[in-house]
UniProtKB/TrEMBL annotation:
<protein>
    <recommendedName>
        <fullName>DNA repair protein</fullName>
    </recommendedName>
</protein>
<keyword id="KW-0234">DNA repair</keyword>
<dbReference type="InterPro" id="IPR006979">
    <property type="entry name" value="Nre_C"/>
</dbReference>
<dbReference type="GO" id="GO:0006281">
    <property type="term" value="P:DNA repair"/>
</dbReference>
<comment type="similarity">
    <text>Belongs to the Nre family.</text>
</comment>
<feature type="domain" description="Archaeal Nre C-terminal">
    <location>
        <begin position="296"/>
        <end position="405"/>
    </location>
</feature>
<keyword id="KW-0227">DNA damage</keyword>
<dbReference type="InterPro" id="IPR033167">
    <property type="entry name" value="Nre"/>
</dbReference>
<dbReference type="InterPro" id="IPR006978">
    <property type="entry name" value="Nre_N"/>
</dbReference>
<dbReference type="Pfam" id="PF04894">
    <property type="entry name" value="Nre_N"/>
</dbReference>
<comment type="function">
    <text>Involved in DNA damage repair.</text>
</comment>
<dbReference type="Pfam" id="PF04895">
    <property type="entry name" value="Nre_C"/>
</dbReference>
<feature type="domain" description="Archaeal Nre N-terminal">
    <location>
        <begin position="19"/>
        <end position="284"/>
    </location>
</feature>
């Protein structure tokens, strides 16, 4: 397969021959999305129903870009920013949704005490559980750029914000008011909202808007996603450590938006590992794909997941939720293969959803790990040995087995 995004290759192909080996041209696909929304957003004043949605950037921290996201559409627009409900959507759908959300951006200090009226309005928007009719006035017509990000869904058109106003009262639950106004640490606030059944991305929005914690600050959207998923994951890990282990080796599999997710559960004490590979021809792939990984034992990961980054916390949370529901613990390995079909990164939510769907799609139960691995081969494109060489859990298990037999001599 030829090298992707080579200027000469693209010039020869012009998106028609698909010489890069992908099922669709990512350049033309994004161009089509831009053209489909161009007329709807080609103005300085945008009035519509925000899903509700906002974005907080990280560049320049502690002075960051922040602003509401408003589409030129009225009515129920919640589907435009509901990542955990996009399980039946395509990459093109997601790019279209994000391209409709116009961001009016302004510079703000992360210390919300220094904020003015506009940021207060943005915070009210963040607390709503229903779309809110809103109006933004921009300095110029918005520019649409779809930037690659493995964390947040791609940000759509944007321009400097002159004014923002909610034109109706937001629907704010009493429990949200209680959590926001009370002197709770961010971790406690996150868990209360989660256990009360609030949507994960609603909690992320509150954290980003500087509404959670004792010393309230704006938190970049990308950081908020990882912080919320990590916080919930840690608490669920503490809970499942009290449960008995599963009884057999279990294998699960699901393919979602060009990503293959396989999960092996072992009847042993808790540990978690994510093994990830970008296959040849994929967005960040190479001619010789390499497996990257991060892992933890029952004490949790040391520091930050440096190799798999945000994907680690998203995948871990989906498996932990499944085990919590079963009131069981297990040793966990998640395999992620990114194929050329994943032609535009749409955010870490797809990992969250992909692994969650995998846990709802069992392949089978096995008496031995070897039987489970033999079945796993059928679902992977990269040879299994590449994963086995890298896996901390499988190396550790092999070493313990040798130690056991040695001590029996």
């Amino acid at each position: 397969m030829m090298k992707l995004f080579n200027s000469k290759l693209c010039a020869l192909c012009k998106g028609r021959k698909l010489l890069c080996g992908r099922p669709t041209c990512p350049i033309l696909e994004r161009f089509r999305v831009v053209k489909s929304v161009e007329q709807k957003i080609n103005r300085r004043e945008i009035f519509g129903s925000s899903p509700p949605s906002l974005f907080v950037g990280e560049y320049g921290y502690p002075k960051v870009r922040v602003g509401p996201l408003v589409p030129p559409i009225e009515g129920n627009t919640s589907h435009l920013d509901s990542p955990l409900k996009w399980e039946n959507k395509t990459i093109k759908d997601v790019l279209y949704y994000r391209s409709l959300l116009v961001m009016g951006e302004m510079k703000a200090d992360v210390n919300v005490r220094k904020s003015g009226r506009i940021l207060e309005e943005v915070q009210e928007l963040a607390m709503s559980v229903k779309p809110v009719d809103s109006e933004i006035l921009l300095k110029r017509r918005p520019i649409l750029k779809v930037l690659p990000s493995e964390f947040a869904p791609p940000v759509g058109p944007r321009a400097e914000l002159l004014d923002f106003e909610l034109t109706e009262n937001p629907r704010i639950p009493r429990k949200t008011d209680y959590v926001v106004s009370d002197e709770l640490k961010a971790e406690e606030a996150i868990m209360r909202l989660y256990n009360w059944g609030f949507d994960e991305y609603y909690i992320i929005r509150l954290l980003s808007a500087g509404l959670l914690g004792i010393n309230k600050k704006l938190v970049p959207t990308r950081w908020s996603i990882t912080a919320v998923q990590d916080t919930i994951g840690k608490k669920l890990r503490e809970e499942i450590l009290r449960y008995d282990t599963i009884n057999e080796f279990e294998l699960y599999f699901y393919e979602f938006l060009g990503n293959r997710y396989a999960v092996i559960l072992m009847p042993e004490t808790y540990a978690f590992e994510l093994l990830e590979v970008w296959l040849k021809g994929s967005l960040f792939g190479s001619d010789e794909p390499e497996v990257i990984h991060d892992y933890e034992d029952f004490r949790g990961i040391k520091g930050y997941a440096e190799e798999t980054t945000g994907a680690y916390y998203a995948a871990r949370l989906s498996v932990l939720e499944s085990l919590r529901w079963r009131r069981r613990q297990a040793r966990i390995i998640v395999f992620r293969e990114v194929t050329p079909k994943y032609y535009a990164p749409v955010g870490v939510w797809q990992i969250r959803v992909g692994v969650k769907k995998a846990m709802e799609n069992p392949v089978g139960k096995f008496n031995t790990l070897q039987e489970a691995l033999n079945e796993l081969r059928k679902f992977l494109e990269l040879e299994l040995e590449k994963y086995l060489e890298k896996s901390w859990i499988l190396r550790l298990r092999k070493q313990r087995t040798l130690d056991y037999y040695f001590n029996m001599m």
